[in-house]
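ok so I'm stuck.
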Amino acid sequence: TGKRPFKDCLIHGLIRDKQGRKMSKSLGNGIDPMDVIEEYGCDSLRYFLTTSTSPGSDLRYDSDKVKSTWNFINKLWNASRFVLMNLDDELKEVPLSALTPADKWILSKVNTLAKEVSYNLDNYELGIAVQKVYDFLWDEYCDWYIEMVKPRLYDKENPTRDAALFTLQTVLSNALKMLHPFMPFITEEIFTHIQDKEETIMLSQWPHYKEE
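replied:
not stuck anymore, here's the structure
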C-alpha cells in the first residue's frame, strides 16, 4: 500500500511453563491454547496473557491464574444479569439533582478510571490498565455499589430507583468498554443487552474523563 503497517510494535517475552522452563517438544511441557480455550474460554486466556507479565519479561503459564480469571468473568456475568433483571423497557434520563451520594460516588470513580486507564494504555502499560478495571468492577461496582442499591431497586415506589438504574447501566457500560480490549467476547455479549443505542461495543465511544 506504500504505507507503514504499524507505528509501534510491542514485543513480549517468552511464555514458559510453571517452573520457568522454556516450552519444548523434548520436555513435553507445551500448552495447547485450544485446550485452554475449550476449558476456560478465549477471554480468560487473553486476560491472563496480558496481565501476568510486564513488557519484555518472560511469562510463566499458570492454569490457576487462568481459572481465577474465569471466576471473575462469572462474577461479571452474574452482576450484569442482575442489572438486566431490573432494567425497565425504557430507561429514563436522570438529572444530576436526582442522584444520591452513592450514585455520584460510583460515577466519579468510573470517570477517574477512564482517565487512568487511557493514560496506561497510551504508555503500553496493559497489565496495569486492565488490573484497574478488574479491581473497580469486582470491589467497587459489584461488592459495594450493587449491594448498596438493592433496597432501592426492590422498592418500586422509591423515588431514587430510576437514578440507581441509570447509574448501574451507565457505569457498567463504561467499564465494559475499558475491559473490551482484554475480554472482547464477554463484554460484547453483555454490552449488546444492557443498552439498545449502539449495535456493537467495538464502534462505541471510548469513555473520556470529564473534568466537571
